[in-house]
Design goal:
Number of helices: 18
Structural class: mainly alpha
Distance between the termini: 56 Å
Number of strands: 5
Helix content: 55-70%
Length: about 475
């Protein structure tokens, strides 16, 4: 066993052992596995040969630890046991299950290796632990830094080091875990990590943390450019435009010099092939390349499928059903989060997805108001803005890439629940330290603080 293999395997073993003491480290270990996928790395050949299911091991240990520490975890939860984002997410999973009942029979030739419903149930279990463990400002900050270092800097480093065999038609493929085998999703991931890095940079108080953000940003930008994704480029434009609107005046003035510097740095990493692909987004229909033109055809077929099956054809069925409409497209994807969801999960699926996205923005807006009015915390406000931009990048990139069952999309959509719980816990802690008369509205509803009255009647402070 080489030194690098020993380091990574030891790190996973330490995280799993630490998860027994604190389930937070189980969350970290799970995300590390999701980003890195050790069984598919050369240094993880020992795990692959021993047929050790690392993800299952991490999941079981984290579940057991969560149950064992539930009393302590429950004390940190303010408001209802299930956040509104969780309710919507489980509704989305329920729609997937229902389309299994009323959808079309699966085509045995075009079935995904992992059934979407099985995958989403696994995500649901992990998300429940995530939103009930990462519920304080400290844990959320640690989790976001971990995402940047492993999901951003390390995957960016891998993208820089991968050999030519990982490039298909000049585009980087297979940089990380199972969701990243597609270059388009890897690109969307790098955009989100870049936003996360910028957010943490603005919040950093030390030169060491700023240096980590800057180095991570360079690796992330290089990885993004190597994917040559047009959808991700749209996400960058949308998030950049939104940032000008969402950030406050003090940060906005820094954009005047920061944006040109970042643009020049990124431009120096590009080549002619990158810009040839990007410019195909701004041409007439007659000048569209084959990839872009076929996407329009896929979306037309997806719309036809929806009109014929408004309740959805069932998860994973699009690959086979599209061939019934256009035989030459059999086995092809819709290449759109919204059109794939529309065809497979029908009106209920796309409505629930849009509600999940819309509610995420509503929750983050609420978090900003609480952080400003009750905590006066610029850090939490910046976190809320950063999550808004991350979601904007994802949902914009989803216009031209499929994320209907992609894990990271839903984890990012559930992070607002973690943030709101962290904000609410900070407010309650602050009220206990500096008692105020009244009640405070958390998660859209009032929370009565015991023993506190105003002129003999409960007073409510709503934010």
């Amino acid at each position: 066993m080489g030194l690098q293999s020993a380091f990574f395997l030891t790190a996973f073993a330490v995280l799993i052992v630490a998860a027994v003491v604190n389930p937070f480290w189980g969350i970290v270990a799970y995300m590390a596995h999701y980003y890195v996928w050790p069984e598919k790395q050369w240094w993880g050949e020992l795990l692959a040969s021993a047929q050790v299911r690392v993800s299952l091991t991490i999941g079981v240990v984290t579940i057991v630890s969560t149950v064992a520490h539930w009393a302590r975890l429950r004390e940190r939860l303010v408001g209802p046991l299930l956040h509104s984002q969780e309710v919507l997410f489980w509704s989305y999973i329920a729609v997937i299950g229902l389309t299994e009942i009323w959808g079309l029979p699966p085509d045995p030739i075009f079935q995904p290796s992992i059934h979407p419903l099985d995958k989403m149930l696994k995500i649901g279990i992990f998300s429940f632990m995530l939103t009930h463990i990462v519920t304080t400002k400290l844990d959320l900050e640690r989790f976001l830094w971990f995402m940047l270092i492993v999901g951003g800097a390390y995957l960016g480093y891998l993208a820089y080091m991968l050999p030519a065999s990982h490039f298909v038609k000049g585009r980087l493929e297979g940089v990380g875990g199972p969701d990243f085998s597609d270059s388009n999703f890897a690109a969307a991931h790098f955009v989100v990590m870049g936003i996360l890095g910028a957010m943490l940079l603005l919040k950093s108080r030390t030169w060491s943390s700023r240096l980590i953000c800057l180095v991570s940003g360079g690796l992330i930008a290089n990885g993004l450019i190597l994917t040559r994704s047009r959808g991700a480029f749209l996400g960058v434009i949308a998030a950049g435009a939104a940032a000008v609107v969402l950030v406050d005046r003090n940060i906005r003035k820094h954009l005047l010099w920061a944006v040109p510097v970042v643009a020049i740095g990124c431009y120096s990493l590009t080549d002619d092939l990158f810009w040839e692909r990007i410019f195909t987004m701004f041409v007439t229909p007659e000048e569209l390349d084959a990839s872009a033109e076929s996407r329009l055809e896929f979306w037309k077929v997806a719309t036809q499928i929806f009109f014929d099956h408004p309740l959805g054809i069932g998860p994973g069925r699009f690959f086979g059903v599209i061939g019934d409409y256009q035989p030459e497209y059999a086995g092809r994807d819709a290449h759109s989060l919204y059109f794939r969801t529309l065809a497979e999960l029908g009106i209920f699926g796309v409505a629930t997805l849009l509600a999940l996205i819309g509610n995420a923005f509503w929750v983050l807006r609420r978090c900003k108001k609480k952080a400003h009015n009750l905590l006066y915390s610029p850090d939490l406000i910046s976190t809320a803005i950063g999550l808004q931009l991350m979601i904007i990048a994802f949902v914009t990139a989803g216009l031209t890439m499929t994320m209907t069952y992609s894990e990271e999309l839903f984890l990012v959509l559930l992070l607002p629940a973690c943030l709101e719980r962290a904000v609410d816990y900070a407010v309650v802690t602050n009220l206990r330290t500096n008692p105020l008369s009244g009640q405070v509205a958390f998660g859209g509803g009032p929370l009565h603080l015991p023993g506190e009255m105003h002129h003999g009647h409960p007073a409510t402070l709503r934010v």
